[in-house]
Amino acid sequence: MGRGHATFTAECSHTFHLRCVNHRTACPLCLTPWRDVPGVTPTQALLFDDDEPLEAPPPHGQATAAAGSGVMVLKTHCQYPAVARDASRDGFAVLVHAKAPALALEAAKAARAPLDLVMVLDVSGSMMGPKIALLKQAMGFVIDKLGPDDRLSLVSFSTTARRLTRLARMSDAGRASSERAVESLVATGGTNIKEGLREAAKVIDGRRCKNAVSAVILLSDGQDNYTVRYSAAAAPDYNVLVPSSLMRSGAGSSTPVHAFGFGKDHDSAAMHTIAEATGGTFSFIENEAVIQDSFAQCIGGLLSVAAQEACVSVECVCPGVRVLSVKSGRYKNHVDAEGRTATVDVGELYADEERRFLLLVDVPRVAEDVDVTTLVKVSCAYRDAATGQSVDVAGEDAVVKRPVEAAEVEPSVEVERERLRVEAAEDIAAARAAADRGEHAEASEILCSRGRALAATGDAMCAELGMELGELSERVGDPTRYRTSGGRAALLSGMSSHWQQRTTTSGNYGKALGGGGYSTPAMRKMVGMSVKARQKQQQQQFSTSTPPPPSLAMNLMRKCHRFLRLK
User: Fold this and answer.
1) Rounded to whole angstroms, how far apart are CA atoms 434 and 447?
2) What is the 3-state secondary structure (H, E, C) of 321-376?
3) What is the DSSP string of 28-48?
4) Rounded CA gap, 399 and 447, in Å?
5) Are strands 115-122 and 151-157 parallel, antiparallel or unpaired?
6) CA 325 from chain center: how many Å?
7) What does the pLDDT look like over 29-56, one tens digit per residue?
8) Nearest 5°: phi and psi at 527?
9) E-state strands within 18-129
10) Could you read off the pLDDT of 273-320 as tens digits, one per residue?
């Protein structure tokens, strides 16, 4: 519609050229009052409380349908199957493995938990050209894949920020409004990430009714040049970009911000900090052409949330058994003063998603007549995202045999894999710290050394992780590549993935999208649909950009022959 002119999409979904708005405060077509009008200083609303009502919301806690297939599964694995009776072990490893329930195939569309989604999109001047076109294409895919019970609000930011659409259900009218808003996007101005997130917080906090799942997706290709103070003397405080209401807290569930760094010029440290502060993930879209696939992977997870407010509890059984520590990455854990109980706040899990935590426990000596020691009991309490019902699940007890003499055996493969994965995640963080203080050779060696150790195990999964560390090592070893060619972004995206055990887009396409140890079936399916949609669109574009038709060429040849005959 714009034909090169800037356009304005009002809250009523009608679109006008900016020059035609002429400081109006109401729509000339439907007479709807406008809150946000270009050229008119708006009354700053503390919250947006005009979200579209939900469609026949069920009473809280009442089941609507069988949304899942079974319940969460809890398993335990001990580092060794047996410990001699007269021996004690300090720091004996016990792996707790939790897997979220799957979505039933017949209920995957009808009974999943609906989503409230706010998309915060960078439309600064650096997004001009192919970037804004790719963003519009990706947003078209997202809008198409949301269901009628999902709600979407669009926020754009450059020098300032604007809410383009209210939080509306993706009915036919809601889709059409969102699509018009996306098409009206024009790249211009600076990068004000804080204002974009502030508008998103106003949407999330102002909701009069809430879907079970909520999330914010933030995309930016540049550095915030309005709020963050950069200096050589001190590291920037990126937490100032995050509204307090979006900050992750220990009380109840919060709305995560999944941050996407678009291209190599974005501020990866800022985007990673935003994701970490809110409980979201940070993804690095190095290949700008696959922005749609990156969004698809994230949406595939958000549209398949199975469990919320999950908390894993551990209780020591036999006297003398104590929990020393819990390796839980970014998930908050607590061990009581006596070491007899421990908890891990897992939070939200997508369907089929897995979490692994290492318990380090003390195993005491036992009497001569004891054949078995039950180390810990494991359970998990969570809320079913689709039904709102509370669920309590008991897992397998962690048990070791107590023979007179314990034979020398190899440690559990599952426990060793998790131990090595945890150490690799810690090494990624250590390499990041070394590179940020300018010790790039040290950072590269940290990752190379861990990669060699992983390759030496002979395990295929460990070898794959070792290859990832090898690629990261190459990125951090070169100062220029680390700072300006996506090295820091790839490292931070890897940290985000391994510390949260959730897949992200990290670097080039093909190494993270739709694959990896943390990807779920729903994510892979959504990425597959995105790839097919992109390929179909590319084929259509190719077919419409063919050379001039033969008839035109023949006309030119006839004119040439006629000219030669006349001569």
Assistant:
1) 11
2) CEEEEEECCCCCEEECCCCCEEEEEEEEEECCCEEEEEEEEEECCCCCCCCEEEEE
3) TTT--B-S--TTS-----SS-
4) 35
5) parallel
6) 27
7) 766 656 565 655 555 668 999 999 998 6
8) -65, -40
9) 68-69, 73-78, 89-99, 102-103, 115-122
10) 999 999 999 999 999 999 999 999 999 999 999 999 999 999 999 999
